[in-house]
Design goal:
The chain is α+β, with helices and mostly antiparallel strands. About 25% of the residues lie in helices and about 35% in strands. A hairpin with a 2-residue loop joins strand 66 and strand 67. The termini are far apart.
Length: about 1300
């Protein structure tokens, strides 16, 4: 819209110029004087008088009325008076000529006074033929006082000289006086008056309003630098006021930078960098915005001048929908100096060189035949067979088809032909990026065919790849000209550059010199040069990272061939380093998918640059070698079935290639563990090329189970690393990038390979219910009056204590809610490991609202409210929720005084995304708290076989097989390409019998028709996997099969496809073999009740594990101390654990100075600290962690005679204090985190005696030895304590003890006592 408006403005200016020409008499355009141009105007002060007129000045025409006068004057003795007695003609006087140069900037100045009528000052530019070719005009209104008047203009092309014209226009009648005139050349600094210090008539000289009615003025009240800024007011949302600079010459294809400082008193402000051609048509615009209010902020733009550009202007603008007031200062424009170019060594000059060198080819061929090594689930031969199968298919193609939005199928001819315009898919209103998938398909063919030639030596593959390569090289452009991508290139450019680079590299020896030149020129002019231009911008976006990845790879293949390759590599390396630093410091990310998309491509470029140049400096960057691996490993669902999918992502296992390279480059064992756990080592060409048979695999067992990542605001709380462990993920950060969602304080939960609390994942970009649900309304957070969050980001994560049995974090996200507005939304999360979560959602607003607690689950198999099956979409009052889906179940209880409205439903218009739960707050209120207790655990079905037991495949037709995540399930995806393709799995049947065979399939627009064969025999009917949208998994009944105990094969063979389907793929979620009477497991339930208190709220939660222990969880809700249940203190959050006899068996708190239970001190300190302790029922040891920001003595509940172990070392008697009356000990600790263990020899022995029911006299003898040891310890006699414990050990070997005490009990006692002795002997 702005382009249209600006073109109209340009036309308007031309019309105005025409009207001015009509108003002036013909003499105005005549030769002003016959003398040669001088350096300055003659007689600018009007002091020289000849015949009563100022010497050196000429009347506009013979009838012009002007004279020298001595009163009034501004300076000196004389001024000039102009008298305009007729409204039918103009009156004026012109200066002498001043030499002027095209492109230089000039200022005409004079003082004027108009007792009646008005007057004007013209700055005129003339060519050598004495034709006026440019004019700038300033106007002075009626007034009796002398006022300055300045006019600034740039001399247009062809200028030879300039003049000043003092003028009274046609239609005017009056008297005007002028004095102290001058015409000077200004320093060449663009834009003119960028500092706004030149003021004329209360407005900045050299700047013109975008149209009539723009309210702007020079002011001194609010400036960034100097004395003046310009203020612009935008009172209406129906117009966009703007202020444009003078013209500034540019050269096409050179890089320019524009900047300005702006201060928004209200609303927002923008800077436009406008490029114009020589016909004064605006041909390109770049825009940057400052939305911050109340402070000066820079706005800057860098852009290459487009082809045909003659000059540029800056436009200070407030867009049409904006209302507000803005100030601008310090505008600048200029060509960006070229950056220093780094010289990269060429250590591998021959080809191939990107992925491997000629010396590596024998090992590559051996890899293709390797049937033994499969560290991540596939052998080298399996990977190669899939590539060759695709290459063979490509050899027979004459076209390929792709499915796009809404199921639209587009067919592309082969060899690749540059596509013309393609109509949008139905229902998609904005430009559609068809070229992205098309170019990736071309890349796949170039890479697979050229690699097939390298490995097999079959020249037919090379000939086909060469044919495609030369065809692509002949295209006019490598980016879709109909799709706006915010630069010179897009994803299509990157894909074509990658594919061309690899094919050129591998086919180099089979290309003629002429063909090499053709391909290199295409690679540089259509790929690298436009990518190089775009790579200048440090943009945090996946498109930009892919662009620069392709730039680096393409530059590596042309190093030594192109003189520009070093410049390309320099810019690429600068971006890579910036991107990695940004990931560590900005707090922003676009989710797993797009970070993986960026790093998987970028790390290929790193590898290529390393192989060609020997430069590997980015490999050790902490983002790659530390943070990225931690992020992915911690966010991985137990069982390896997908990563937490906040933002645009599926619950998939991303980073396959990145982890491959990190494992190979840096021997990163956790990257290897991730690949082994997920079986996600990338397949295809990249998977084969980066396959490593000797991969390093290190489980993360030594890592803390939970983490809160400061780098991106993700909390990832785990119970451990096995399949049946639990992961709780929550996001609270300030990330507001393009692929982020409105999901602050949203959480996800996974266990047993299932995301039981998930996220809808990748957003739908078309306005409507699917977009609403995926972007705002489907996240497990809080809705207000039925609305989701209105601002991206604006959340913060506060890390509490993360301990072996207890985690606490808090997300604050009120800033994400602007309409309706929240003043507080704190989500407190307490994780009582391994399976219980207590959430307090503390909400406040300025006005009453209804709040909804939302939980998204996706594919559910059953759900209940208060123990009864619930009808989907029906609101039922209740407090208890039960959900079962996949191989997991979740139970939740909402604590409070009354039932809450609960609904489990599918979102209208987005039903394919499955189920989500809403729990309402009831009547509108300005404050509300949800106190929720959730438990989750694996849900084990008999006879179920999932990907964990079905992979690797027993056999297949050689197509790609991998795991994908869809609708909350992990699915075995098989890329069938034609009827007859198949995959075979093996199931181990526990006993002989008759079984009902079920297959749980995914449905999709690309899936085929499948027939199952058990042990080679067809079973049941064929399954049609087509559906208009991705749905399922759905259960397909094959019928009864009689199976013997032991292994049996099930082959899924593609027999065809639905006419509407775009391909022959298979998606298998699981297989189930049902026998008669197979029962369902007992449902999970939550034992919890509300705990009232003062200045706090809490929950009493039963563990439900048979121990009889209950956890009293308390949250402080105000300042000072709180009392909730039995607990009291001042911590932000605390937990007190009590056994069935009300004895304290655990206590935890975050950031407090004291925690008590029934008045007894459990924890105490002089300044806030965090701690978590539990007592082992088997040994009576108390163990835990303490985090203290400052060195201090920490008091904690412990037996007076216990041994204190800090960070693995026992403290000597006297190194800590004992308060027997209070039942506490005081441990001096340095600032930091410490592991603390309290060990009691007597407690250990007594516990074992009780557990084994050892009778008298043995029990008394054994406990007496232990009591004596502790007594000696309490006196500081360590040697005597050791003596008594050694006697106890000796006593265990006496015949009397061996006759009366079971051998396992003796072994347990020896271990318990031996552990205490080991500690004491360290002192």
């Amino acid at each position: 819209m702005m382009n249209v408006r600006k073109r109209r403005k340009t036309i308007g200016l031309l019309v105005v110029a025409g009207l001015l020409a009509g108003l002036l008499p013909s003499a105005a355009w005549a030769d002003p004087a016959s003398d040669e141009p001088a350096a300055a105007i003659a007689n600018g002060g009007f002091e020289q008088v000849a015949g009563g007129k100022p010497a050196g000045w000429t009347g506009l025409n013979p009838t012009s009325v002007y004279e020298s006068v001595y009163e009034p004057v501004h300076g000196g003795a004389y001024a000039v008076k102009l008298t305009d007695g007729s409204a039918q003609a103009g009156n004026g006087v012109r200066s002498s000529r001043v030499a002027a140069s095209p492109g230089s900037v000039y200022k005409a100045s004079a003082y004027g006074m108009n007792p009646s009528g008005g007057s004007q000052l013209y700055l005129e530019f003339w060519n050598a033929a004495d034709a006026r070719i440019g004019v700038q005009i300033g106007t002075l209104p009626t007034g009796p006082q002398w006022k300055p008047l300045d006019v600034v203009g740039e001399a247009p092309p062809g200028t030879a000289y300039a003049t000043m014209l003092l003028y009274q226009h046609q239609g005017n009648v009056g008297v005007a006086y002028f004095d102290d005139a001058s015409l000077t050349e200004l320093p060449r600094q663009f834009p003119y008056n960028g500092g706004f210090e030149e003021v004329a008539g209360g407005k900045p000289a050299g700047w013109s309003a975008l149209g009539a009615g723009v309210a702007y003025s020079s002011v001194t009240s609010n400036v960034y630098e100097g004395a003046y800024s310009v203020r612009m007011d935008d009172p209406s949302a129906d117009s966009g006021p703007g202020l444009r600079s003078g013209a500034m010459p540019v050269v096409p294809d050179r890089l320019y930078r524009a900047s300005v400082r702006s201060y928004n008193e209200s609303g927002s402000s923008q800077l436009y960098m406008e490029f114009w051609n020589s016909a004064n048509v605006r041909i390109e615009t770049k825009i940057a915005t400052n939305s911050a209010v109340g402070s000066w902020n820079p706005i800057s733009i860098e852009s290459y001048a487009p082809a045909g550009a003659a000059y540029a202007t800056l436009l200070l603008y407030q867009h049409k929908a904006n209302v507000g007031t803005a100030y601008f200062d310090g505008a600048s424009f200029g060509e960006v100096p070229p950056e220093p170019v780094r010289e990269f060594p060429l250590v591998t000059a021959s080809h191939p060189r990107l992925y491997f060198t000629p010396d590596d080819v024998p090992a590559l061929k051996a890899r293709a035949a390797d049937t033994a090594s499969a560290p991540f689930g596939s052998t080298g031969k399996q990977l190669w067979d899939a590539i060759r199968s695709n290459a063979d298919l490509y050899m027979t193609e004459t076209s390929f088809s792709l499915s796009y939005y809404g199921g639209k199928i587009v067919t592309y001819p082969l060899p690749p032909v540059q596509p013309g315009p393609i109509p949008n898919p139905p229902g998609f209103d904005s430009p559609y990026p068809y070229w992205t998938a098309m170019s990736k398909a071309v890349q796949d063919r170039l890479e697979a065919l050229s690699l097939a030639y390298t490995v097999t030596g079959d020249t037919a593959y090379a000939d086909k790849a060469r044919q495609y390569l030369l065809s692509v090289a002949g295209w006019n452009a490598w980016t879709d000209p109909t799709y706006p991508c915010g630069g010179f290139t897009c994803l299509d450019t990157a894909h074509l550059t990658f594919g061309t680079s690899m094919a050129f590299d591998l086919l180099y020896d089979r290309l003629t010199d002429q063909e090499r030149t053709l391909v290199m020129n295409a690679l540089e002019t259509k790929g690298l040069l436009p990518l190089y231009k775009d790579a200048r911008s440090k943009i945090d976006h996946n498109i930009q990272s892919l662009r620069v990845s392709a730039l680096g790879s393409g530059a590596a293949v042309l190093l030594g061939h192109s003189p520009n390759a070093n410049a390309y590599l320099t810019r690429a390396m600068d971006y890579y380093r910036w991107y990695l630093d940004e990931r560590m410091s900005s707090g922003k990310q676009e989710g797993m998918l797009y970070t993986s998309y960026a790093t998987d491509n970028m790390i290929k470029a790193f590898d290529h640059i390393d192989r060609v140049t020997g430069v590997r400096e980015l490999a050790e960057h902490p983002f790659l070698n530390d943070f990225l691996v931690r992020w992915a490993v911690y966010a991985l669902a137990p069982g390896g079935t997908g990563l937490a999918n906040f933002s645009d992502a599926s619950a998939a296992n991303y980073f396959g290639l990145t982890m491959n390279v990190l494992n190979a480059w840096l021997s990163n064992g956790q990257a290897g563990w991730y690949l082994k756990e997920t079986k996600s080592a990338v397949g295809g060409v990249d998977g084969f090329l980066y396959f490593r048979p000797d991969a390093v695999v290190t489980p993360p067992d030594a890592w803390p189970a939970s983490t809160a990542l400061d780098e991106n605001g993700w909390a990832l709380l785990r119970s451990g690393w096995e399949d049946d462990d639990v992961l709780f993920a929550m996001v609270a950060n300030g990330s507001n990038l393009g692929h982020n969602h409105y999901d602050q304080n949203s959480f996800q939960i996974a266990t047993n390979r299932t995301w039981i609390a998930s996220d809808p994942g990748y957003q739908d970009y078309v306005a409507g219910p699917v977009n609403d649900f995926t972007v705002r309304l489907g996240h497990s957070t809080i809705q207000v009056d039925g609305k989701g969050q209105s601002l991206l980001g604006n959340g913060t994560l506060t890390k509490g204590l993360l301990a072996p049995t207890y985690d606490y974090v808090k997300g604050s996200a009120a800033g994400a809610y602007a309409n309706p507005k929240l003043t507080k939304f704190d989500r407190h999360v307490v994780y009582l490991k391994p399976d219980t979560f207590v959430l307090l959602d503390d909400l406040q607003a300025d006005a009453p609202h209804v709040y909804d607690w939302v939980l998204y689950s996706g594919g559910l198999k059953s759900f209940e409210i208060d123990g009864q099956p619930a009808a989907a979409g029906v609101t039922t009052p209740g407090n208890e929720l039960y959900l079962q889906g996949g191989a997991a179940e979740l139970a939740a209880k909402f604590l409070g005084d009354s039932p809450l409205p609960m609904t489990v439903s599918r979102y209208p218009g987005a039903e394919s995304y499955g189920y989500f739960t809403k729990v309402g707050s009831g009547a509108p209120t300005d404050a509300h708290r949800f106190l929720t207790v959730m438990k989750t655990r694996p849900y084990e079905l008999k006879g179920l076989y999932d990907e964990s037991t079905l992979l690797p495949l027993t056999d297949s037709s050689g197509r790609e097989a991998k795991l994908v995540q869809a609708n909350g399930s992990t699915v075995i995806f098989y890329r069938g390409a034609a009827a007859g393709d198949y995959m075979t799995v093996t199931v181990d049947v526990p006993e002989t019998g008759t079984y009902e065979l079920q297959s749980h399939f995914l449905q999709s627009p690309l899936y085929g028709i499948v027939q199952a064969f058990v042990d080679g025999q067809p079973v049941g009917g064929a399954y049609d996997g087509y559906a208009p949208n991705v749905t399922g998994p759905v259960t397909f009944e094959h019928g009864e099969v009689v199976l013997t105990a032991g292994p049996h094969t099930i082959r899924y063979e593609v027999t065809g496809k639905n006419a509407q389907s775009g391909n022959y793929f298979i998606g298998l979620d699981a297989i189930r073999l049902l026998t008669a009477g197979a029962g369902e497991p007992e449902k999970l339930a939550v034992e919890a009740e509300y705990a009232a208190g003062t200045n706090g709220v809490g929950a009493i939660v039963g563990r439900g594990d048979g121990s009889g222990v209950r956890d009293e969880v308390a949250f402080r809700t105000g300042d000072g101390t709180y009392a909730v249940g039995r607990a009291s203190g001042d911590a932000e959050q605390s937990v007190v654990s009590l056994d069935g006899g009300d004895a304290v068996v655990g206590f935890k708190m975050t950031r407090g100075t004291e925690l008590r239970a029934d008045g007894a001190v459990l924890l105490a300190g002089g300044s806030p600290f965090s701690a978590a302790f539990d007592t082992d029922a088997a040994t009576t040891d108390t163990y835990g962690v303490v985090e203290t920001p400052a060195a201090q003595t920490i008091g904690l509940r412990a037996p007076a005679d216990a041994i204190v172990v800090v960070d693995g070392a026992p403290l000597a008697p006297g190194a800590y204090t004992v308060d027997a009356a209070a039942g506490t000990i005081g441990i001096p600790l340095d600032a930091g985190r410490h592991d603390v263990r309290i060990v009691s020899a007597y407690g250990r022995v007594e516990a074992s005696v009780g557990a084994w029911e050892i009778g008298e006299p043995a029990s008394a003898q054994l406990t007496n030895f232990a009591r004596q040891a502790e007594h000696q310890w309490s006196k500081g006699a360590v040697d005597r304590a050791v003596f008594h414990l050694e006697k106890l050990l000796d006593h265990l070997d006496t015949p009397a003890i061996r006759r009366s005490v079971p051998e396992p009990a003796i072994a347990e006692l020896k271990e318990a006592v031996g552990g205490v002795l080991t500690l004491l002997r360290q002192l």
